[in-house]
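Notebook entry, cofactor series.
This is the third protein in the set we're modelling with a bound small molecule. For this one the ligand is pyridoxal-5'-phosphate. I'm keeping the input format identical across the series so the outputs can be compared line by line later. Sequence and SMILES below, as received.
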Amino acid sequence: MINVTQSFLPPLEEYTQILQKSWDKKWITNRGELILELEEKLKQFLGINFITITTNGTLPLQIAIKALELSGEIITTPFSYVASSSVISWENCTPVYVDIHPEYLTIDETKIEEKITDKTSAILATHVFGNPCHIVEIEKIAKKHNLKVIYDAAHCFGVQYNGESIFNFGDVSTCSFHATKIFHTGEGGCMITKDQNLHEKLFYHHNFGHNGPEAFHGIGINGKTSELQAALGLAVFNHLDAIFEGRKIAVEAYNQFLDFSRIQKLKIRENTVWNYHYYPVIFETEEILLKVKEALNKENIFPRRYFYPSLNTIKYLNGEKMPISESISQRILCLPLFAELPPETVATLSKLINQNL
Ligand SMILES: *Cc1c(COP(=O)(O)O)cnc(C)c1O
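Returned structure with ligand:
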């Protein structure tokens, strides 16, 4: 069976060897030695100033909305995982959708301003499939209208834009370390900001608002992660070069073998070092997609319809019509992609797809 992704698992003894440290100390959570070590390593590797590792990649979005004291309307993309919209509603704000660019698949920055009202407090956009939004234009709009910017950068581990980590943009960027993501801790995530005061606020919020064992800074929630997850992260971290290289080889094989006369592929934004996180293909019609999917399923190959449905069409999210996002959502399929996917398998898989176009 081949799934859309396969979690990278380091040799078990590497994991247990790291975990031994927390056994020796009898310290398994509450920001022990391993989580601190992982945060340091990630700061160095990514080129960022402040990071707080969290339980998952959804909570940091909620914490960011709280810490930035957002209210009213938040402008967002209909083409993302449901978490980037549901956090807005969960925090008692209203998601206001702006359609996406038909090739980059990120929020269409030219359509943002017409949706700004006196209730708008922020833009929450997703760098979808690791492809950056039009960061420069979004920053300009935000400055002009005094809005905050949160980037759901769940797909962006290792992505660079204009020569620096993509996590350095926006007021807050968040990432997911879920098992299906490039770098993972089983479940996990993080929040990143360049602003030290904001970093401290985010940090307090993720730790009950603690300001010392018997003091409280303000309201908080528990968004901490454990040493067990940190150990897995440290073990995976040691294999990052191989992970990126394996994915790159698989992506290049798809680029070589798929028939692009009838398939649209993701257009990566200029000035981007991409991370080979997903391999989305857009078919001419939904019928073709369903035909291809069925042919692959028959061979025990399971691609996924990321992202379907378009979030604006989900009843409880109350969105207006978004023609481009809805059309893309119906026609886009993410093909299997992971570090250990051999190019020969990609060739076979591509042939099967080409035959069903
Ligand atoms: C994975 C993902 C999330 C959620 O991350 P979790 O760690 O599973 O909570 C949020 N947004 C996007 C775009 C994602 O792909």
